[in-house]
Amino acid sequence: MPRTAFEHSGFFRFRLEPLSRTHEVASGLAARVHDPAWALARQWQFGEFAGQDAGSPVLAQIDGHSTLISAWRPADQGDLSAPAGPRPWVPYDPTTGPLDALVESEDGVGPDEYLRVEGGAHFIRLLDQAGLTAKLPQVLAVYAFKSMPAKPTNLVTLLASKFPDAVELAKDLDGNGLRVPGLAAVGEQWIGWWHGVAPATAPSGPGTNALDTFDPHRFEHSADFSFGDRVFHAEEYLGDGLDWFSVDLDPTASPAAALAPVTPFHHEMVPSTVRFGGIPADRFWEMEDAQLDFGSTDVSALDTGRLLMIAFAEVFGNDWFLVPLEVPTGSLTALEPIVVTDSFGATHTVERAGRDNPHWNLFTVTGANDGLLLLPSGQGTVGERLESVTLTRDELANLAWAVETSFTDAQGELVDRRARWLPIAAQEPPPNPLGLYQVQTIVPNYWLPLVPHAMTAVSIRFALVPLLQPGGRPSEPLGRLLHTDHWVHEEEVPREGALVTRRPVLARWFDGSWHVWVRREKNPGGGESSSGLHFDVVRPSETWL
User: Fold this and answer.
1) Hey, how many other C-beta atoms are within 10 angstroms of the C-beta on 466?
2) What is the reported pTM?
3) Residue 271 CB coordination number (10 Å)
4) Could you give the angle at the alpha carbon of 331 between the alpha carbons of 326 and 335, nearest 5°?
5) Whose CA, among 1, 22, 387, 494, lies 20 to 30 Å from 203?
6) E strands, 202-308, where?
7) Where are the beta strands (DSSP E) in 395-477?
8) Tens of pLDDT, residues 251-296
9) Which of these, 172, 149, 201, lies nearest to 411 by C-alpha position?
10) How far apart are CA 451 and CA 465, in angstroms?
11) Three-class SS of residue 107?
């Protein structure tokens, strides 16, 4: 029977769950029905008769077309040494591999000595499996490492004299073949393995058609992608995985000459109800999932997003249906109005959300009024950092700094620049009873100053200049992200700073192939820093009177 409870507002509240008159709970949980009229009354109490007599969707007809990506190119980065005008389009087939490997990878950077030794060791392993170990002296004589130190200093230099150079092997196998006869089968097997583990290399430098999209003055990528008669432009891509929100439509750019064909499609499928944890039960006797409790969510009147989510889950959660649609990888897919047939045989046309409101769109590229852009992205597994550079401001010194905290040397070893600097750091003068005068305080040599240079009356840029240290060599970059004549746009060193890293990436494509590249990525920093740089400093050993 219903139990009443008095509210402070003066009204009575009726509890509609079944209650037991005794101390046992089995009868209440059973919710046995002895009268059909009582069940109808319970339905009326629960508001089930207030629903609409609407049918359920049983068939959805989806028509549309997909346009595949046909080409890509590095965008113009404002470099005066680059050729004038847009760069030529480079054909691209999504079946060859992820587009991230082309956009993010370093240009013209070959494998380090560690990987070259590892590749030579694998070649010897294949020789042993093929029973051709007798050919090893000839291979070492032709493909030996060059310019290695006479005395071994680490594992790479120790093993370099016992293994062939993988880079020299790859050059011959990609060209006319090995210069050692009788190794064609082994070479074919090895070169397939090498292309799967070694990062791709390409010519770079002024005057060449380099495919590097990285702007060293902004530490960001910029590229163009051609989809049919449309061109999408990535202006400030940070190198963290391509997606539809990484690009905008460029209406002024000309697409590639070889336009990709437009593929129309027609699909008929049965919609399925949307199910998720915490969805309200459809029937009175159905047990609800207690893992999610939307009623205990801590929200305020201004938490519009949370309130909409709770309303969707508790009020309209069981009124939504799902119609999955598979689209090709690397395509721009546009849908026609969807025709839905319900259980009563009536048809309903579902228009695109926001069709009549150009200011409201969801999952639509900026500048395009329709279409779902699915870029051929394969983020893969990201490894440990190969190099780290922190861009930060120092208000006390009126400078910006590029702090090269770590880098990878030629042998593939990660070097901590602070650990390398501490043993060679210049010592401060001993204390003096009369006081201590310093022309300049000591700053670690991996702190590289970015000095502001005025370009116009209203704009400046930061230039990397050497910092002469007392009793030591000037600071200089040792990694690949910075170089001695580097400069950076002022807006790329904000108050919160920035962190630029190099990381190896291993991704597997949908055809099972493996792809390896080195990603250059930019992330927010940790705020301002202080280098402790001062000039003309007098430090007494005790308080002066």
Assistant:
1) 13
2) 0.75
3) 19
4) 60
5) 387
6) 214-215, 220-227, 230-237, 248-249, 262-269, 272-273
7) 399-408, 414-416, 436-440, 447-454, 460-464
8) 998 898 877 788 999 999 999 888 777 777 766 666 666 677 777 7
9) 149
10) 7
11) coil
